[in-house]
Every structure is written in C-alpha cells, then in structure tokens.
Amino acid sequence: MLASVVTNKTAIKTNLKRSVNQCLGNIAHTIAEPKQNQVPLLLLSFLLLLCVPLFLYTFRTFDNNRLVSWYWGFSQEQLFAMLALLSVLLALFLIAAKLQWRVPVNIVFLSIVAFFLTIPFWQTPEVIIDNARYFTQAKYLELYGAGYFFREWGGTIFAWTDLPLIPFIYGVMFNAFGEYREVIQVLGSLFFVGTMALTYALGKILWSHHHGMVAATLLLGIPYLYTQIPLMMVDIPAMFFLTLAVLTAVLAIKEGGYGHVFIAAIAIVLALFTKYSVWIFLSVVPLVVFAQPQHLWRQSVIRLSKIIFFATVLWCLVLSWYYPALFEQITILLDYQWR
To answer: Which of the residues 19, 74, 273, 297 could staple to 78 if both were Cys, CB 3.0 to 4.6 A apart?
Structure first.
C-alpha cells in the first residue's frame, strides 16, 4: 500500500514537471514561430490595434485622473491622418505575416534602430512632478559628492518613497557631463536599448537566437515605454536593472560558478535599490529553475540557493546602514496603499 502511494506521488510529480516544461516550450514556440492558420488572429489583432487610438481619443473624457487630453495634442484631421498611416502600415504587416517574409536582423542593428526611435520623444516636456525629487537628490550628489550622498540619503536628502540607485546615477551623470536635460534623455535611451539587448540575450540563452530577436522586437512595440524614456524618472532604469538581474540569475543557474553567482547577487541587490515595485517582479527569479532541463532541476535549485544567500548577505549589509530610512518608506507605502 505504502509503495503504491509513493509510486503515485512520483508519477504525479513527474507528470507535473513534464507539463510545466511542455507548456513553457509551447508558449515560446507559438510566439516565435507563427503558423499559416494564425493569419486570421493576426488580422484581428491588427484591427484591434487600429481601434486603440480612436478609442482613446473618443473616450478619454471619461478618465477623471488624466493629466492631459488627446484633444490638446491631436486635431480630428491629425487623428484621421494618423489612422490612415496606421492602416497602411498594418496592411503591410499583415501581408508580410501572410507571406512569412523573413528579414535577417541582428541585435546590433536593432539596438541602433531602437536608439534612433527614441530621439523624437526627447522633446517631450517634463510633466510628472515626481521628477523634482529625483533631480533634487541628484543635485546633492553633483554639489557635494558621492560620499555625502551615501551618508545623508534618507536624512538630510529627503527621499520620500524613492530608492537611491537611480538618483545616484543621475547625480553622477550631472557631475560628469553637466546639468543638462539632454544628458538624462540620452541616458534614458541607453537604458531602453540596454534593456532590449538584455531581453534578446535572455531569449537566446533560454531558447534560441530567433526567440531573443522576437522578444527584443516586441519590447520596441510597447508605446508606454516611449513616454517614459525622455523623463527624469526611474521606470526605464528600473526595467533595465530588473532585466539584468533576471539575466544574470539565468546565467548563474545555467553555468554555475561562484563568479556568475556573485554577479547575479549584485545585480539583484542593485535592482532592489531602484524601485519598490521591482521587489515584486524579482519573484520571477526562482522560476528560472523551471526553464532548465528537468534532470538539472536539483542542481539549479542549489545554484539558486547560493544566489539568494549572497544576495541576502549583501542586502543585509546595506540594510544595516539604511534601515531607518527604508523602514520609514515601507511604513508610508503601507499606509498609503493598503490603509
């Protein structure tokens, strides 16, 4: 009886592992290798994309949290011109999908294209008041140096619920290149391009070059990112450090070695100091184990444990210095978000 129960548990566990691997593989294969019978679905997707600008333009007045209106930026004539252009582009994309055109593109070319795509957005004004805090924190570093910044952050340098890494980087850039908005905008574009390159590397390591290129290209198609790139905010840099943390964790779990493990731990701690929401997103790191072949899961768990151990040690060292400020910030977030 006992042997039967053990056998059943083993069989269930084996089937579960096989199902997870098969599911992940099928999702990746479906995204990277569209089939001919998916053309109707692509057509529906393109039509829905075409409706998005019209929908936003028409129903924006129902959003009482908006800061700006589409009517301020587009006249009806401009809207219809944009829709006409989108219609032509989407029709071309549909034809390309139906004929399965393949254009060889490498990540270097895609990175250059991505950088130039961000340049027209540099003229976007700073409309989000939060950037005043990041500027003020960066200004302290520019004026008084990195040592003062590290000593006084969270004290004399008022931090609200901001974490120090990105303002520190902004301050270093101001110190090196001067207090110009263009410096921050170029840096934002580089963080965006870097995230795209890291996404490509992640897809290539986990699956193949083609999967990596598809993932990187899809990242270029997220409109919201282009609204954040030119601003002195933390979202785009935080996205970069989060992706870096995941990539280094994948490499450490896949390749092993204390060098990879320690680099992954450092990357995770850096990501932790970008934005509090990144703490939640880092929960994806343990799932990297399931991206490895099933017979390597035990080895992967051991390597993951090493990453977590070193990251925890580094985090505790930093926490011992900034504990009062971080505790106060978390208290504010809890009061603001959930009470």
So the answer is: 74
